[in-house]
Amino acid sequence: MSGPPRWAISQPRMHATLAGNLAETLRALENAAAAGAEGCVCAELALTGFHRGVPALVDADALAAAEAELRAACARLGVAAAVGVPTLGGGGAVFSSHLHIDAAGREVGRVHKRGLTASEAGFFTPGGARGWTALSGVLATSVLCREMLDGAELAPELHAALSAHDAAVPRVVFWPSYIGESDAEQAALCEAYRAGAAELARALGAWVLQSNWPESLNAPAQRGFGASCVIAPDGRRVAALPRDAAAQVVAALGRR
């Protein structure tokens, strides 16, 4: 690989079915490979979509088969991926996770969301500690959606975990999310999320790559979704995807 690592940020259409979202994610990987990217980051719960019907889609066999297709696609295309998936744990636990797959199609990491909203906590189980994964030219971790408000807790934990890794490798925080600016209150909350992302970028010397859904299946008339962004290690927002539309962009991630 010559030059800085290039990662695609996917802002996909949302579907109500596992099959529809799997096809959308596979298409994102194809597009990333065609654009010469080393990897592709996808949204929170990219495999199921983020909607009220998610519990009905949490089937162990179907999810395992879908993940196998993702791994096979990564290996065939030679691209890494970070994809939002439900993960089934012991005792009936279900986690909202971000799955890290390398360019050989191997699972190399899985981050479980622990900063759940009140509604999410009614179905999902909070995750635990997290670290960093070596993934296609970058050192990566994931911070899921509203966890960007938890930087005071996450930054020391993630900073301490960096001591075991090469300081010269670009650091990347994947930010899979489902947020929208449908009214003034939500717009203020989204700005707080972005401010938290900029603070975390500066604290860790890391790029932040947001993959946000561009629509809501729960409230199809709402607007203000999408606008996924790329935040540089100095906290500047250097790229943004369109609002309320599916899109994909590739960002070159230089050293700090």
TrEMBL record:
<keyword id="KW-0378">Hydrolase</keyword>
<dbReference type="InterPro" id="IPR003010">
    <property type="entry name" value="C-N_Hydrolase"/>
</dbReference>
<protein>
    <submittedName>
        <fullName>Nitrilase-related carbon-nitrogen hydrolase</fullName>
    </submittedName>
</protein>
<dbReference type="Pfam" id="PF00795">
    <property type="entry name" value="CN_hydrolase"/>
</dbReference>
<dbReference type="InterPro" id="IPR036526">
    <property type="entry name" value="C-N_Hydrolase_sf"/>
</dbReference>
<dbReference type="GO" id="GO:0016787">
    <property type="term" value="F:hydrolase activity"/>
</dbReference>
<feature type="domain" description="CN hydrolase">
    <location>
        <begin position="5"/>
        <end position="255"/>
    </location>
</feature>
